[in-house]
Design a protein that fits this description.
The complex is a heterodimer of chains A (73) and B (287). With 73 residues, chain A is α+β, with helices and mostly antiparallel strands. Chain A is 23% helix and 49% strand. Chain A is built from one helix and four strands; from the N terminus they run E-E-E-E-H. Chain A has a four-stranded antiparallel β-sheet with strand order 1-2-3-4, with helices on one face. In chain A, strand 3 (28-35) and strand 4 (41-47) form a beta hairpin. The mean pLDDT of chain A is 95. Chain B has 287 residues and is an alpha/beta fold. In chain B, strands 1-5-4-2-3 form a five-stranded parallel β-sheet. In chain B, strand 4 (82-86), helix 4 (88-103) and strand 5 form a beta-alpha-beta unit. The model of chain B has no long low-confidence stretch (mean pLDDT 95). Classes of the chains: A alpha+beta (73), B alpha/beta (287). Chain A binds chain B through residues 1-6, 8, 16, 21, 23, 25, 30, 32, 34-35, 37-42, 44, 46, 61, 64-65, 67-71, 73, and chain B through 32-33, 35-36, 39-40, 88-90, 92, 117, 119-128, 169-173, 175-179, 181-184, 186, 191-192, 201-203, 237, 242, 279-281.
């Protein structure tokens, strides 16, 4: 089997830049969301379509990012 | 264009595609997200979990010599094996694993340039099954802790400004605006950075496809911040994996002589009672 149709794009969630990547293994789509800086993984999900997999990870990533507290410096 | 100081410390995805199942080669995936391997991996690769197999799970520490030997033995590795490590997040924890393998003297350990992302983006063969491994009786060398910085060393270096300190976290973590990467749990009591540290986020060493930037670009990046062989270099982040990545860059791609990874990092320093902390975007005393 091959990893196919890999795509990566940058979006903003809860005020933070996020990389969303996805690819297909056979009939299953896999997606993940990372915060851009530093690049840590936030969510991973699989689905029957790219949209379904990406929707799951962006929803979860937005929840997590929304909890991030900014402090005055 | 100049070469990396130790080009043998890297292999390309093409090289792995050709050699992954060679009998003297063991390919290992080490991810931040330990579920990624089950989703897909380089055919023939095994996986190590950073949070259970690459650390002491009782006290906070890297593997002991005995634990490292057990891991290598169970992985079918001998001292003559070419270990090729790769992973997600442009090889964060792959670099952490390589750092430990170097501490225990494994002779031939390399990173797959570009990591998991590059492999997937190239549409290469990917597996979901786990290879069978024939166990060995691995004997490690005594640890070389000259590759590791401990708290007393960092405290002294901070007080005397006797080392280049490189903070590889995000600019917001460095300034103290956030206490952990966005979306992740806060794991320290105070935000900011070690006084005198330069902010050079780890990702600046990478191209968009996850590969390392050229030697000239890396030299410009770190040299531009005053990081050179005039003083020892200590890299740190939050828990030591991002700084392993920068440690690898400085030691093996640029060839700096004295580079250590402070794996205690900000989860140690930012929780210490009485430790000096600097806040804000730019270190005034860093040079």
């Amino acid at each position: 089997m091959k990893a196919e149709e890999f795509q990566e794009r940058r979006i903003e969630l809860a005020g933070w830049p996020v990389n969303v990547s996805s690819y297909r293994m056979g009939t299953v789509w896999h997606a993940k969301a990372d915060n851009v800086s530093p690049g840590a993984g936030l969510a991973r999900a699989s689905g029957e379509t790219r949209e379904a997999a990406e929707s799951s990870v962006t929803k979860r990533a937005e929840e997590l990012l929304g909890r991030t507290r900014r402090r005055p410096v | 264009m100049s070469e990396y100081a130790h080009p043998e410390a890297l292999v390309s995805t093409d090289w792995v595609a050709t050699h992954a199942t060679d009998p003297n080669v063991r390919v290992v995936e080490v991810d931040v997200d330990t579920k990624a391997y089950d989703e897909s991996h380089v055919p023939g690769a095994i996986a190590w979990a950073w949070n259970t197999q690459l650390c002491d799970t009782v006290r906070r520490d890297i593997l002991s010599k005995e634990q490292f030997e057990q891991l290598m033995s169970a992985s079918g590795v001998t001292p003559a094996t070419t270990l090729v490590i790769y992973g997600d997040n442009n090889n964060w924890f792959a670099a952490w694993a390589l750092w430990q393998a170097k501490i225990y003297g494994h002779a031939d350990v390399r990173l797959m340039n570009g990591g998991r992302k590059k492999w997937l983006s190239e549409g290469r063969d990917a597996a979901t099954d786990k290879p069978e491994v024939k166990a060995t009786q691995y004997q490690a060398k005594d640890p070389d802790f000259s590759l590791r910085a401990y708290l007393p060393q960092v405290t002294e270096a901070c007080a005397r400004r006797s080392s280049h300190m490189v903070d590889v976290r995000s600019p917001q973590e460095y300034s103290g605006e956030i206490l952990a990467p966005p979306g992740l749990p806060e794991t320290c009591q105070r935000g900011g950075h070690i006084p005198g540290a330069r902010s050079i986020p780890w990702g600046k060493a990478c191209n968009d496809d996850g590969t390392f930037k050229s030697a000239d670009e890396l030299r410009g990046l770190y040299g531009g911040e005053g990081i050179d062989d005039a003083k020892p270099v200590i890299a740190y982040c939050r828990i030591g994996e991002r700084s392993s990545h920068t440690w690898f860059v400085l030691k093996y791609l640029l060839g700096l002589r004295d580079v250590t990874n402070y794996d205690g990092s900000w989860t140690e320093w930012g929780n210490l009672v009485g430790a000096p902390v600097e806040k804000g975007a730019v270190s005034a005393a860093g040079r």
